[in-house]
Amino acid sequence: MSDEAVLAKCEKPASAEAAAAAPFTPGRALPASRLRSVCELGGLAFETTEELADLPGLVGQERALDAIRAGIGIRRKGFNVFAFGPPGTGKHTMIDQLLQLQAAAAPAPPDWCYVNDFADPHRPRRLILPTGRAATLRDAMKHLVAELRVALPAAFEREDYRTRREVLDQQFKHRHEEAFGALQRKAELKSIGLLRTPMGLALAPIRNGEVIPPDVFQRLPAEDRERMRTDIESLQAELESIVRKIPEWEREHRDAVRQLNRDTTAVVVRHLLQAVRAAFTDLRDVVAYLGEVESDILEHAEEFTGRDRDEPQVEGSPAEMSSFRRYQVNVLVDNAGQKGAPIVYEDHPTLQNLIGRIEHFARFGALFTDFNLIVPGALHRANGGYLVLDAQRLFAANFGWESLKRALRSGEIRTVSLEQLLSLASTVSLDPEPIPLEVKVVLVGSPLLYYLLSELDPDFPELFKIAADFDDRIERSAATTGLYARLIASAARREKLRPLDRAAVARTIEEAARMSSDAAKLTAEIRGLVDLLQEADHLAELAGKTRVGAAEIEAAIDARRRRADRIHRRFQEEIGRNTLRVETTGERIGQVNGLSVVTLGGVSFGRPSRITAQVRLGKGEVIDIEREVALGGPIHSKGILILSGFLGGRFGRSGPLSLTASLVFEQSYGPVEGDSASAAELFALLSALSGAPIRQSLAVTGSVDQHGGIQAVGGVDAKVEGFFDICKARGLSGDQGVLIPPANVQHLMLRREVVDAAAAGLFSIIPFETIDQGIELLTGIPAGVPDAGGSYAEGTINRAIAARLAAFAQRAARAPLPKKPRRSRVGTGENDE
Amino acid sequence: MNEPKIKRVVIACGAHGDIDIAVRGAAVLAARWRVPLHGVFLMDENLLRLAMLPFSRHVSLSAPELSGTLEVDELRNLLSALAASMRRAIEAAAKHEGIDWSFAERRDLPSAASGAVAEGDILVVDAGARPFSGSWRPRSLWEGAAGDLGAMVLLRRNEGGERPCIALVLDAGTAAHDRVLGAVRALAGPQDQVHVLPLGDLAADAGFREAMLRQFELASVPNVSVEHPLLDLADVRNRIARLNPRLVAIETSALGQEGVQALVANTWCDLLLVGAA
After folding, report:
1. What is the distance in angstroms between the Cα of A149 and the nearest Cα belonging to chain B?
2. In terms of Cα–Cα distance, which of A783, A825, A109, A786 is closest to A439?
3. Are B13 and B42 within 8 A, CB to CB?
4. Are A771 and A686 in contact (CB under 8 A)?
């Protein structure tokens, strides 16, 4: 179809305003102008969307946007935002735009690091540094360690150190030698030898280099033996005295060596640390940390030199790890390149991805960790800024919600592993010092989730005080239509699509109204519209056009419909083949065409069904067969109860109704829900009672109240089009049409071919206000109005019904029915037992 | 040239209780030379005699509180246990290196020495300082007799290290040049720097330097330096202290008994003492 043809067709129906203003008469077919409200080209003052400025934001979402602005503006605890609304309404885009604006005006937050706590290595210490200086500290410390690993061994290899160390060793050695040597010499003077035994040392009388044999010793004079005993005991006492001093000498030697090492190290370390200190003199915490680093290096100088080490250090071994890694700086958050406050989107908000994790590495069959293996989470990165999370994913992720709440409640990020959180592991791990948290969290989710959280989680209202409720549709007016056109233009530019001409924009706006199921509204689900624009752009490309016209939009809409209507077509086909019986000609007693909407995989279409009723003598019951077989939903049952109420109210005032009626959706094998067929069901019942046949060329939708008034239903477009498609397939006769509630006239946004058929007098959409009006339209027989005595005139529907009910009552009086409680049946109220 | 034919590596075992360092080095040498490993345990009659004396006591070096009287039976049991332990250590080391091994016990030093130090044996004595006694330690009987055994004795210290430096002390007046040279060639590796320290008139020999270089070159030890002559024992000790070698090899006759003992007492590296055949 050409653009001109499309535009020509636009002339028949009315604009939104015109359609809304045009009067209609209940009981009479609606004019074509009320069946679809078109978007007037005259209201669009541009040729193509290139002329339109971008729309900074969304149309008709002011309430939600104000809420977000308030949420991100109030820097108070708990003023986090939960943005909810139908998918595709541009929530993320809008939130991002608002956050960008707010974040750009804010300063970049400071950097955060973890460093070793030398007093308690299991509890890494946090360090806060001005923006961009954490990396400087990290590099400086890395450089320092590298320098120390060269400079310290060199210092310990220098001649002066070696000489001083040699002196200490010699002093230590001489001390031993002097003590033991003096004892040994003293013993030798007394012919006593110092022997080595498996247990230690022993003193023995020596003759000719050998211990005196016991028998020889016994033959010695008593005074000699006594002298030897005394000498040996005296020497043993001295020996024990020396041995007692050995540990002290060794300690003194170690202390002296350690002091020498410290002195040697101190010269080097202070010199090298001076450069680091100079760069951070303004940061008290860093200066204090550097002081601790100096003390620790002095205490462990030998680890740099490799001296006095029992075992060589293997690279990556625990010993090597603890030696040098403890002086590193783990920059958790480096905001060096950050402009303004950070905005972080976390797609997988698990516990670890939110609060960070402590990693381990395997060495020699064991797992090790230290503060360098603390990995930041989204909360760390967003600290001082904004964190945007998808609520659905947050709840799907293990412990994501709990960890987020804990952090927001406490105002700090405490990095713990899942096994620690659940107390599953008792191994020693890290307990990093918590990092203060100042973040604004924006959760994006569905309305259902929001209401569930509000109801079930007492923490939720405390932590998310701002609700940003995105509407699924917006008012359709001249003003919003103009803005909507700019919205379309912005989307086209953002998606790099061809510009749309005016007719294409108008057709898109009409489709937006149809998507909202209300001619007076426009859908807020922009994503669906963007998909449509992209498909139309593709068609324009195939056609070699530089612009997207109404024809491409129309073709894209048709293509989408075709792709999605396989099931719909299958129903149509089965109806066409009379496998599913739906009559569109002739008349039937107790049978009416009802209309329902089938929704499968997000696609909805109307399905006509025969609704039939049977009546017989009974106890005032209306049996809902759908409910009897557990296919009817509660709202449907409510509709049946209401029509029962209507029946009892109109015909049971003078006595109980002695009938039993059954109602059913013929050839319906799935669940039936909703009350939009209650009017049709009542028509079937009234027809069955009165014996008046119903025109099968008409279908009915609408719910009924207990007074017979007709109320609005949903999905009216789909329902009308569903019946139209059947009639069209069989041939439009001019008698066919659909009865709809007057309140639904304003919603009509029917397909163009339906409008065209109506304009040609081939199909009618007739609003009806009451049951009486409806039954007259369906049967062609007056319903009848009760006179002063409550009687109806001859030849009316109501007279026939009253007569039939009276006949039931007389028969019931002659032969009372046995009482039999029936659990699942619904009664007519007054006649219930 | 009179090359020493190493036929056996003998480990000196006894009441001193330390053979770890000796076993480690000895097994490697035996494997390199493809000769058996032999252990000789000295039961030390002196100690047993001492235990029979009425006032015998031992003083524990680790803690005086553990000191007590010496009982003959207890001592004998301890020595037996020590011998068994050393036997197992030698067996394990030999199996690890894939060499033959044997073990024997002797009552006293003469019988032990005569059984151990045969021609072609190298006796490895553990002379490592025990940590609890600092640098001082009473020498074992084996160490005390090291200079008198008349054979090659390797005193192993726990100072250890793998420094590629060997000092060789030679004297013109001795007759064991070939033996000590052969032993050093056998012990040196291609990475070692061998410092030949001549004593007295030896350096005056014009062909000495070239002869030394040639001998080591043949043994694939290319890094050899023949130093200026040294005057006396003090000179030797100073030079050794500066070189800080892994091994000092010396002819026992070059320094005399006292000189050898002084060197034993004042060096921390391994010592190879080579007497005349």
Report:
1. 22
2. A109
3. yes
4. yes
Q: Is residue A830 part of a domain?
A: no
Residue A328 within any structural domain of the chain: no
Q: Which among A204, A229, A243 is the nearest to B59, CB-wise?
A: A243
Min Cα–Cα distance to chain B from A264, Å: 22
Instruction: Give the residue among A744, A745, A727 at the shortest CA–CA distance from A736.
Output: A727
- Rounded to the nearest angstrom, the minimum Cα separation between B60 and chain A is 5
Can you give the pLDDT at residue A829? 31
* Domain match, A686 and A797 both: yes
Assess whether A676 carries a catalytic annotation: yes
Domain extents in chain B:
8-156, 165-274
User: Do both A500 and A615 map to the same domain?
Assistant: no
Q: Hey, are the CB atoms on A203 and B57 less than 8 Å from each other?
A: yes
Residue A69 has pLDDT above 60, yes or no: yes
Q: Total domain count for chain A?
A: 4
Tell me, what's the pLDDT at A329? 95
- With an 8 Å Cβ cutoff, are B136 and A210 in contact? no
Per-residue pLDDT tens digits for A570-614: 888 999 888 999 999 999 999 999 999 988 766 788 999 999 999
Instruction: Scan for tokens 């009848």, then name that residue.
Output: A784
Report the C-alpha gap between B105 and B43 in whole angstroms: 7
- Domain end position, chosen among A451, A469, A487: A469
Query: Is there a single domain that holds both residue A463 and residue A522?
Result: no
Where is pLDDT greater, at A536 or A831?
Answer: A536
Structure tokens at A396: 């799907």
For residues B45-70, give the mean pLDDT.
80
The answer for A 180-239 residues in CB contact with B (under 8 A) is 180-181, 184, 194-205, 210-214, 217, 228-229, 232-233, 236, 239
Q: Cα distance from A190 to chain B (closest Cα, Å)? A: 16
Please give the full DSSP string across A496-528, using - where no structure is assigned.
TPPPBBHHHHHHHHHHHHHHTT-TTEEE--HHH
Q: Rounded to whole angstroms, how far apart are CA atoms B144 and B138? A: 9
Which pLDDT belongs to residue A819?
A: 59
Residue A490's domain is classified under what CATH number?
Answer: 1.10.8.60
Give the active site residue among A516, A676, A687, A703.
A676
Nearest residue on chain B to A162, alpha-carbon basis:
B242
Indicate the average pLDDT of chain A.
86
Chain A positions in Cβ-Cβ contact with residue B140 (cut-off 8 Å): 196
Q: What is the ipTM of this complex?
A: 0.76
Contact state of A179 with B136 under an 8 Å Cβ cutoff: yes
The CA angle A477-A479-A481, to the nearest 5 degrees, is 65
Nearest CA in chain B to A199: B60
Rg of chain B taking only CA atoms, in angstroms:
19
Interface probe with B: pick from A196, A220, A248, most Cβ of B within 10 Å? A196
- CATH level 3 topology of B165-274: Rossmann fold (3.40.50)
Asked, colleague to colleague, whether B8-156 and B165-274 share their fold, the answer is: yes
Is a pLDDT exceeding 50 seen at residue A83? Answer: yes
Q: Mind listing the pLDDT tens digit for each residue in A377-423? A: 999 999 999 999 999 999 988 889 999 999 999 999 999 877 777 77
Residue A266, domain extent: 138-321
Percentage of the residues of chain A whose pLDDT score is greater than 70: 92
Whether residue A232 is found in the same domain as residue A101: no
The CATH number assigned to the domain with range B8-156 reads 3.40.50.620
Contacts of residue B54 in chain A, CB cutoff 8 Å? 229
The residue assigned the tokens 């509000």 is A454
Same domain, A408 and A500: no
Is A522 inside any structural domain? yes
